[in-house]
Write a structure and sequence with these properties.
The chain is an all-alpha fold. Helix content is 80%, strand content 0%. The chain has helices spanning 2-10, 16-41, 45-54, 56-65, 69-88, 95-114, 124-128, 136-155, 157-165, 167-170, 177-218, 222-247, 251-272.
Length: 278
C-alpha cells in the first residue's frame, strides 16, 4: 500500500518533461499569486482577463514567423495598449467600452490569423498552453520575468498600497495615481507573458485570479495574503499536473480546474468557519 502510494507520487518526477513542468508551476505560482492579489484588491480582473486575449494576434504572428512567443506576446500587448489608449480618448466610448472593443477586435484578428493554411498545427497551444512542451530556455525566461515582477512589486509596494486603499488621498501624500496604475498594468502584462506559454491564452486568467481570490478569504493582511496566494497556486498547479499525468488529461485545463477547485474550497471553508489568518 505504502509502496503504491510512493510510486504514484514519484512517477511524474521521473521524466525531464514533468520536472520542467513542476519548476514552471513554482515560478507561475510565485508571480501569479503575488500580482493576483493586487489585481483582486484593485478590481482589475476584467483587465487581467482582457490582456491575454488582446495579445493573441502577436502570439499567432510569432508562431507563423517562427519567432519566440515572448517577442510576439510583447508586441501584441504593446499594440493592444496603444489601441486602447487611442480608443479611450473618444469621450463617447469610455474606457471600459474601449477595452471591450479593442480586445474583441484583436482576438478576432488572432483567430483569423490562426485559421491561415500556413499556421502550424501547434497553434492551439497558444489558446490552451503547453506546459509539457517547455524547454530550459523557457524556464530561464520565466525565472527572469518572475524576478522582474517581484522586484517591481517590492519597489512599488508602499505606493501601490496607498493607491489601492485610498486613491482620493494618494495625491495629498505625494503618490500620483496614474503612474501607479500604469506600473501595475505593466507588471500584470509581464505576469501574463510568464504564464501564457504554460497555460495558454484562455486559461491564464485562472492563475491570476483564483488563488488570490481564495487567499483574500483566508488572510487579513496583504503580505500573508500574497504568500497564501502563491502557495495555493503552486499546490493547485502541482495537483493539476498529477491529475494530468495519471488520468491523461490536458495539463493546462487540469491545472485551471484545480485552481478553481481550490477557490471553491476556500470559499466553502470561509463560509462554514469564517476565520482569517493574521
Amino acid at each position: 500500500m505504502i509502496t503504491d502510494i510512493w510510486n504514484w507520487l514519484a512517477d511524474p518526477w521521473s521524466g525531464e518533461i514533468m520536472r520542467r513542468a513542476f519548476a514552471e508551476i513554482v515560478l507561475l505560482g510565485i508571480a501569479g499569486g503575488a500580482i493576483g492579489c493586487w489585481i483582486v484588491l484593485n478590481e482589475l480582473s476584467y483587465g487581467a482577463e482582457s490582456l491575454p486575449h488582446a495579445m493573441f494576434p502577436g502570439l499567432v504572428v510569432a508562431a507563423l514567423a517562427g519567432a519566440p512567443l515572448l517577442v510576439g506576446g510583447s508586441a501584441g500587448l504593446l499594440a493592444a495598449a496603444i489601441a486602447i489608449a487611442i480608443a479611450a480618448r473618444t469621450p463617447l466610448i469610455g474606457r471600459d467600452s474601449a477595452i471591450a472593443i479593442v480586445v474583441t477586435g484583436l482576438f478576432g484578428l488572432g483567430v483569423l490569423l490562426a485559421l491561415s493554411p500556413a499556421t502550424p498545427q501547434s497553434v492551439q497551444s497558444l489558446l490552451f498552453g503547453d506546459i509539457l512542451g517547455l524547454d530550459t530556455g523557457d524556464l530561464i525566461a520565466a525565472a527572469a520575468l518572475t524576478a522582474v515582477v517581484l522586484l517591481g512589486l517590492r519597489l512599488l509596494h508602499v505606493r501601490l498600497l496607498v493607491v489601492s486603499f485610498d486613491r482620493t488621498s494618494a495625491r495629498s501624500v505625494g503618490v500620483p495615481t496614474e503612474p501607479m496604475d500604469v506600473a501595475l498594468l505593466i507588471l500584470i502584462a509581464l505576469s501574463v507573458l510568464i504564464a501564457v506559454q504554460a497555460l495558454g491564452n484562455l486559461l491564464v486568467v485562472a492563475l491570476l485570479i483564483a488563488p488570490a481570490a481564495a487567499a483574500r478569504l483566508l488572510a487579513r493582511r496583504l503580505l500573508p495574503m500574497m504568500a497564501t496566494a502563491a502557495a495555493l497556486a503552486i499546490v493547485s498547479g502541482i495537483a493539476g499536473l498529477y491529475v494530468s499525468y495519471h488520468l491523461r488529461t490536458a495539463a493546462g485545463a487540469s491545472i485551471a480546474l484545480a485552481l478553481v477547485a481550490v477557490y471553491l474550497l476556500a470559499a466553502a471553508a470561509a463560509r462554514i468557519a469564517p476565520w482569517r489568518t493574521t
